[in-house]
Write a structure and sequence with these properties.
Elements lengths: L3 H9 L7 E2 L3 E5 L6 E5 L4 E6 L11 E7 L2 E6 L6 E5 L4 E5 L16 E4 L2 E5 L4 E6 L4 E6 L10 E7 L2 E6 L4 E6 L4 E6 L9 E5 L2 E5 L5 E5 L4 E5 L17 E7 L2 E6 L5 E5 L4 E5 L8 H4 L13 E4 L2 E5 L6 E5 L5 E3 L3 E2 L3 H8 L6 H10 L5
Parallel strand pairs: 4-29
Antiparallel strand pairs: 1-2, 2-3, 3-4, 5-6, 6-7, 7-8, 9-10, 10-11, 11-12, 13-14, 14-15, 15-16, 17-18, 18-19, 19-20, 21-22, 22-23, 23-24, 25-26, 26-27, 27-28
């Protein structure tokens, strides 16, 4: 039985959908509070660096984040201002006019943004590419061929040279977008995978996963497809939903790391030996009760993964723990965070109409707690 204090701590525990990782810090829009935050990777010290303008103290205001130099690009979920730019040096927000009322069209995650020359190409969940020039803040919209839908059907992307390979969850197609001429090609997969959610490139081989319990390797040069189905014994789907089992596949040397979305474990696939094994994380087991736990933001397991050289950083939607996985040693550590009071912001923040004193004091103590 979970006690009231323990449940309250869990509900208040910081959570985010996306983050930016550099050598020292993580930047993220907080999911359960109006705040833009940063965490020191070594010490775990966490601080609120600013609040989103013209917003109340509400959850899920901004979710996606991408960094280019000293600018953060943020995508809204419930936020009123649309796409935002935050200047880390000047500590100011500015908007990018999108002329779009449906916010899900401009919903993205940082792993889906590609910087090419003077532009950012944002591969949204819906079949639209946003081409954003950060100098003049102009935006163009590029639509996909053969996809007439506003649903979230675009899966993981990966880049090679100036081409972006894009998975599609409702078609057996890999879209290939050329950043130089801004044209599409596509590769049709002659296999009943029923949609592709994740993709990684290894030479001429495309590694893919979808809704089925299988990993596909497609050699595009000779058009040979190999299917691997021998998963770890305890592997299972955690939710009866028509979605992909994995959110990302990460290629590291001769290993493929499969990050679960609606599956119960991270799977390490040895490409040379064609053997899969479970990466066990204590307290991350799932059942019907954990999926519907009060304070949990979504069912999917690890909907966020960021690569840091030989390491992966991800956050659990079950425990809200931030994990760092060493892909070479398979060692897993928990990044423990501790709040630092942002005294340099306190006077300025309390003077804003949108942030009352109770939001600052209760929000800082309640929503950003020590893990």
């Amino acid at each position: 039985m979970i006690g009231k204090n323990e449940m309250d701590d869990y509900i208040r525990k910081p959570f985010f959908y996306d983050c930016v990782v550099d050598d020292e810090k993580i930047y993220f829009p907080l999911a359960n509070y109006n705040a833009l935050c940063t965490t020191n990777i070594q010490s775990g010290l966490t601080e609120i660096i600013d609040f989103f303008p013209n917003e109340k103290n509400e959850p899920l205001l901004y979710c996606g984040i991408y960094r280019l130099n000293n600018k953060l690009l943020l995508s809204p979920y419930r936020g009123k201002s649309g796409l935002l730019l935050y200047d880390l040096e000047e500590k100011t927000f500015s908007t990018i006019d999108t002329d779009i009322k449906d916010r899900k069209i401009i919903n993205f995650r940082g792993n889906r943004v590609v910087h090419y020359k003077d532009d950012l190409f944002v591969f949204c969940f819906v079949p639209v590419i946003l081409k954003i020039n950060l100098c003049n803040k102009k935006i163009q919209y590029i639509k996909y061929p053969q996809l007439n839908t506003n649903e979230n059907v675009i899966g993981q992307i990966t880049c090679r040279d100036q081409k972006v390979y894009i998975s599609c969850s409702i078609r057996n197609i890999i879209f290939v977008f050329d950043l130089q001429n801004e044209l599409f090609q596509y590769e049709h997969l002659d296999y009943t995978i029923n949609g592709i959610n994740t993709i990684a490139i290894d030479g001429n081989n495309l590694w893919m996963t979808g809704k089925k319990k299988e990993v596909l390797m497609w050699n595009t040069q000779n058009n040979i497809i190999n299917c691997f189905k021998e998963f770890p014994q305890r592997f299972c789907k955690i939710c009866d939903i028509d979605e992909g089992l994995f959110s990302d596949c990460i290629l590291f040397e001769n290993q493929l790391f499969l990050i679960p979305s609606y599956a119960n474990m991270i799977v390490k696939f040895d490409i040379d030996k064609t053997v899969m094994e479970e990466i066990f994380i204590p307290d991350e087991e799932e059942n019907e009760n954990t999926l519907r736990k009060k304070g949990r933001f979504f069912y999917s397991k690890y909907n966020l993964v960021k690569r840091m050289n030989e390491k992966l950083l991800f956050i659990s939607s079950k425990t809200k723990n931030i994990y760092i996985l060493n892909m070479r040693s398979l060692e897993i550590t928990i990044l423990k965070t501790e709040l630092v009071q942002c005294k340099e912001y306190q006077k300025e923040i309390l003077s804003k109409d949108i942030i009352r004193e109770e939001y600052f004091t209760n929000g800082l103590k309640g929503y950003i707690s020590i893990i």
